[in-house]
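Dear Dr. H.,

I hope your travels went smoothly. While you were away I took the liberty of generating a structure for the chain from your last submission, since the lab meeting agenda had it listed for discussion. I wanted you to have the full record in hand beforehand rather than looking at slides cold. The sequence, exactly as received, is reproduced here:
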Amino acid sequence: MNPPGDRQGTAAPSASQPRRGVRQGLSRRQRLVHRAHFAECYRQGRKWVGKYMVLFLREGEGASLRLGVVSSRKVGGAVQRNLARRRLREAYRRNRQDFSGEVDVVLVARRAIGEARADEVEAELVRLAGRAGLVADGPRTAGSGGAG
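The corresponding predicted structure, in token form, is as follows:
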């Protein structure tokens, strides 16, 4: 007989799967949470447009590569909006170490993100970040970029 609490048939987590209880997301200090910061970001007008997202940069007090994510009803219902935000946060989290600058980043999901694969979203984020000058080898261009 098995001792209480011992569950047969449960495999140990593999090395590729994160362990339960280990937080891999962005901490509160790494996220934009105040409405005023979002509004300031939009007012500054530094944006780069892609197929799946629009990247905005905010310069100012306290800017330190924090992330804000937005998805409107144009993206879809609540489930689609939540999925879009999760994809954008994960793409940013996976690439944040390659970004530099005293700016905050706001990512706005676009309707097409619903059909995109995670690797496509991540590739577009890196491309837009390069155009915005967040990646060391990317050219810095002021203003907005096209959808291409």
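Two observations you may find useful: Residues 48 and 128 are 6 Å apart (CA to CA). The two ends are 63 Å apart (CA to CA).

With kind regards,
E. W.
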